[in-house]
Amino acid sequence: MVKTIATFLFTTVICFGAMAGTLFPNLDINDPNLSRDKVMRQCQKSLMYAPQELDAWCDKAYKMGNWQALELVGLHTGDGSRYIAEAKKHAAEGDPDGILALAYVYSTGRFVTKDLVQSINLYNRYLTENSNKVKEKMRVQMTHKDLYLIYTELGDLEKAAAHKRFLDESNYEKIRKEMFEKQLKDSGISLDN
After folding, report:
1. What is the pLDDT of residues 164-182, one digit of tens each?
2. 70-94 per-residue burial string, b: 16 or more CB within 10 A, e: under 16
3. What is the pTM of this model?
C-alpha cells in the first residue's frame, strides 16, 4: 500500500513537472525582444506553474507598464497593498481599469474590507464616465451585471431591476455568447462536436 502511494505521488510530481514545462515556456527574462504582453502572460502563468518565478516576471511586467501584475503578486504573497495603492492612483487619474479594479476589490473584499457601498459608488462612477464610449461597451454591460448582483445581494430589488432591464435591452447574454463563440472559432475550437 505504501509503495503504491509512493509510486502515485512520484508519477504525479513527474507528470505535473513535465506539464508545467509546456504550460510555462522557458523564456529568458532578460531578452530585450520580449513584448509587454508576453511578459504579462508569463507573470500570469507563473502564479500557477512557476510560483518561484512570479516575483521576477510580475515585477518586470509592472516595470513595463502592467500595473495589474501587482494583483498577482498580492495573491501570491497575501499582501495586496501595492496593488490597491496602484489601483487608487489610476482611479484618481480617471483610468477605467483603476476604477473597475477598486470596484471589484470592494465588492469581494479582496485585499480590503468588503464595502458594497464603495463598490457601488465606483461602478456608478465608471458608468458615468464611460457609458458613451464605444470601446467600453462590453465592460459597461458587465458593470451593469455586477451592480445587478450587488443590489440583489443587498435586497434593493428596485435598483437591481433597473440594471436587469439595461442588460435585457442591450442583449448582454446574446452578445456575450457571440463573443465567446468567436473567441473559440478564432482559437480553432469548434462547438459542433
Report:
1. 999 888 877 777 787 778 7
2. bbbbbeeeeebebbbebbeebbeee
3. 0.76
